[in-house]
């Protein structure tokens, strides 16, 4: 059966679209399904932020086709693993869960690297270099995730 992985951030236009694109690029789509969502509603229906599109393109990944959507409690049923970018989003999602089984699906993305509680910083209000920094840390985390899938 396919493993289903959901990447979650606040807006679903900067970090989680990158995480979706990066992980998709490392897995066999016959075995792993990857999607992303946001906890906020601001950008529903929009394409990823142009700075995320640009940094992904720099590394050979096309995320232009992605469309922002909001996290829904049905995602707890539909996905096996829910990776969140920061603690704020971790708390938001865990509070929406209906069981311990659902809550244990939720993990901080960077914990996949070393079990730490580090966060992927929100690059929205910063410059281009923030997106490069996010790309690199998400890429390392996804390498670790792939090894364990
Ligand atoms: P993301 O970044 O959570 O990585 O998609 C953000 C995008 C938009 C906003 C905040 C963070 N916003 O406030 O509109």
Instruction: Please summarize the sheet with the most strands.
Output: 4 strands, parallel
Assign an overall shape.
Answer: globular
**Count of domain modules:** 1
Please state the CA-atom Rg, rounded to the nearest Å.
Answer: 14 Å
CATH-defined topology: Rossmann fold
Number of strands: 4
Fourth-tier CATH superfamily name: Response regulator
CATH architecture: 3-Layer(aba) Sandwich
Oligomeric state: single chain
Strand order of the largest sheet: 2-1-3-4
Overall SS class: alpha/beta
| H and E order | EHEHHEHHEHH
Termini separation comes to: 12 Å
Mean residue pLDDT: 97
Q: Please estimate the helix content.
A: 40-55%
Low-confidence stretches: none
What is the highest CATH level, the class? Alpha Beta
Q: Treating each run of at least 4 consecutive H or I residues as one helix, how many helices?
A: 7
Approximately how much beta-strand content do the residues carry? 5-15%
Cofactors, ions, other ligands: 4-nitrophenyl phosphate
Q: Which properties best describe this structure?
A:
149 residues, alpha/beta, Rossmann fold, four-stranded parallel sheet, 4 strands, binds 4-nitrophenyl phosphate
Report on the architecture of this protein.
Strand 1, helix 1 and strand 2 form a beta-alpha-beta unit. Helix 1 crosses helix 7 and helix 2 crosses helix 7. The chain has a single domain, classed as Rossmann fold (3-Layer(aba) Sandwich). The N and C termini lie close together (12 Å). The chain has a 4-stranded parallel beta sheet with strand order 2-1-3-4, sandwiched between helices. The longest helix has 21 residues. 42% of the residues lie in helices and 14% in strands. The model has no long low-confidence stretch (mean pLDDT 97). It has 149 residues and is of the alpha/beta class. Bound molecules: 4-nitrophenyl phosphate. 4-nitrophenyl phosphate (4NP) binds next to loops.
